[in-house]
Automatic annotation (TrEMBL):
Residues 207-222 have a biased composition (Polar residues). GO terms for cellular component: bicellular tight junction; plasma membrane. InterPro entries: Claudin, Claudin_CS, PMP22/EMP/MP20/Claudin. This is Claudin. The chain crosses the membrane at residues 80-100, 121-143, 163-183. The keyword Cell membrane applies.
Amino acid sequence: MNAIVEAVAFLLGFLSWVMVGVALPNRYWKVSTVDGNVITTSTIYENLWMSCATDSTGVHNCRDFPSLLALSGYIQASRALMIAAIVMGTFGILATLVGMQCSKAGGENYVLKGRIAGMGGVFFLLQGLCTMISVSWYAFNITQEFFDPFYPGTKYEIGEGLYIGWCSATLAICGGSCLVCACKMGTPEKVPYPYQPTRGTVYSGGPPSQSAPSNYGRNAYV
């Protein structure tokens, strides 16, 4: 496996893991819309854990969701997927660190290290898929409620937390794909045949050289 590809893939995976940690506690997963409202006295924004409101003076108040079972199913699933993404990203970082060629962990068996690095790529792919499903499912419900003319509750728009999640998922999928595609399972190298010069006289432009001595003795001639 190319060491440069490993370094780039590890950097992408690490950045995606950090961005998942930033997106998960971000408060602005969805923000109340001002579409159709002439006067806006307060703004409501929510994430997977709490709901907050701020008024025109800048005073804001947040409250945690009181019950887990009372939440919508997609919020519970998004929570589980985001936590799973952090766990998968942690395994991916550890496996990639062990499997990198520049790392002394794992010994000098580069075939085994390449396989470990490939497993790190699989973990990064799983992290990206969990994050992508979580934020996309959450955004789908926001847009579904926004364009529903009969929805009686507050309508929301997509917040910055979802955009951070999408960027994180894209980086994780790119980093994991680089590790998986560049992983080589240790193919044996072909040893070239040794060069054997043929007997005879080689003319190099100078005076003719004497022929090589024969292996036959004098008694061989009849």
